Predict the 3D structure of the following.
Amino acid sequence: MAICDVLNTSAGATLLRASRTLAVRLRHPVHHLWLERQQWHDQSQRSFSYFTHLTYWGLAFYHAFAAIHTSSYWLTGVPFLARWRKPLQIAHSMFYSTVVIYPWIVTIVYWALLAPGRFPCAFSLWSNTSRHALNSLTSPLPWLDMVPTIILPALYLGLAYLTHATQEFYVYDFLDLQENPSGIVAAYIIGILVTAVVIFVILRYLIMLRVWVTEKKLGKTGKFSSRGAEHRVNVSDCQIQGKSDK
């Protein structure tokens, strides 16, 4: 029987109506899912324009490297960090300092300038608290590490304005030169860089205080692996190079 003959029967007509009803009912959720996909696609394209996301990636990579160093120490008694050349050890130390400092900058800037008066739902409150507060919760910071701590946010400003030039939106409203006087924007930028320096100094001495209390006063120095004892001096040298100037 041809398909047209089937559709001309009562059963065929019923099937056709059911198919149309199903298509109508599916059209809205499918369209909604398509819009959601487009929204997530657009957000993913803009993700690396946000300093918060870059800071999160920095935290993720630091903890990944920390896991690798810890695993190598557990397996061999000598972490990979102790086997690296001095420039790589210094770079790792600077990386650590950015992981300590930048979450505090994110926290202060968000809650001082960007946070809404109230959050629309519990998930939004939890999500923003997690991203802009709990990531600030570390060894003393070498003074040399202050240099990249200041330079990298300055370079980020170039990325923020490049994003505006290519995608026509400002990542953060306080950088908008069309809505804010140039002097105000400059004051925000200088204020953030000065804040980075202040946070660096405060955290350096807070961490040194913590180390003094836990290691010197309480004797909580931890236990070393019995393997790789001949490299132990090298390990202590490359843990945090700023310890010598405590």
The longest helix spans residues 10-46. The chain has nine helices and no strands. Residues 140 and 243 are 7 Å apart (CA to CA). Residues 29-35, 231-246 have pLDDT under 50 and may be disordered.
